[in-house]
Automatic annotation (TrEMBL):
Transmembrane segments: 7-27, 47-67, 104-121
Entry keyword Transport: yes
GO cellular component annotations of the record: endoplasmic reticulum membrane
Protein name from the UniProt record: Endoplasmic reticulum transmembrane protein
Family listed: Belongs to the BCAP29/BCAP31 family.
Length: 242
């Protein structure tokens, strides 16, 4: 192989290795997000889009060149076979056709896996953010639940105090105490209502986050199935080359 196609083959093998590492089940998206937050990756992120587009353009050019070579040698192959030329020239054309087809597969799979790699990294980042948001919402819901329980207990205590007040005291003092306690109960009721509304809102947000997380997981699983199929095809072509 020439230098450019050796580089494309090495790039393809590197893509396969990186995607396999990203798909390891025991590394969670949150851990990948921490890895992506390293200072080195932050510096590279500035040039990431430019590098991605540059590699896309190079792979497209190589892919189109490989398509041109395949069409060229396919037509020559048919013409030479029809003309019944000597076997050495026919074998040389077959070799050229085989190499052009190999280059077509290399550039095509490299281009596709480069897009899959970009999409996989994006999905991992989005899934990590959704998981972090889900955990924060769960904490908020738990805090709201505890506050609601606390206010309910205080309300019951005040109601018991209201029902037990008045025995052995003057009527004026009893009325003032009852008014004060009623105001306290009304204040606690208002706070309890606000807490209940916040609790229901948090539950709704948690349900929405769970649904979005499930959609991301399904899309991630779909990409995994496509990648496994492409990997099987690549192995078959590699065995054919050997």
């Amino acid at each position: 192989m020439t230098f450019q196609w050796t580089a494309v083959a090495a790039f393809l093998y590197g893509e396969i290795g990186v995607i396999l590492v990203l798909c390891l089940p025991f590394i969670s998206p949150l851990r990948w997000q921490k890895i992506f937050m390293f200072p080195l990756w932050s510096k590279m992120a500035v040039f990431w889009n430019k590098m991605f587009l540059t590699i896309i353009v190079l792979l497209i050019v190589l892919f189109l060149d490989a398509v041109r070579e395949v069409r060229k040698y396919s037509s020559v192959h048919v013409n030479e076979k029809a003309a019944n030329v000597n076997s050495s020239a026919f074998d040389h054309i077959q070799m050229k056709l085989f190499r052009s087809q190999r280059n077509l597969y290399l550039s095509g799979f490299s281009l596709f896996l480069w897009l899959v790699l970009r999409r996989t990294v994006t999905l991992l980042t989005q899934l990590a953010k959704e998981m972090a948001s889900h955990a924060a919402l769960e904490t908020q819901v738990n805090d709201a639940t505890e506050a609601a329980k606390k206010y309910m207990a205080e309300k019951e205590r005040l109601q018991e105090a209201l029902s037990g007040k008045g025995n052995g005291k003057k009527k004026e003092s009893t009325d003032a105490t009852e008014e004060k306690l009623k105001e306290e109960v009304e204040r606690l009721k208002a706070e309890l209502q606000k807490t209940s509304q916040a609790f229901h809102k948090a539950k709704t947000e948690v349900a929405a986050v769970k649904k979005q997380s499930e959609d991301l997981r399904r899309e991630y699983d779909h990409l995994m199935k496509d990648f496994e199929q492409l990997q099987n095809l690549n192995k078959a072509e590699h065995k054919k080359d050997l």
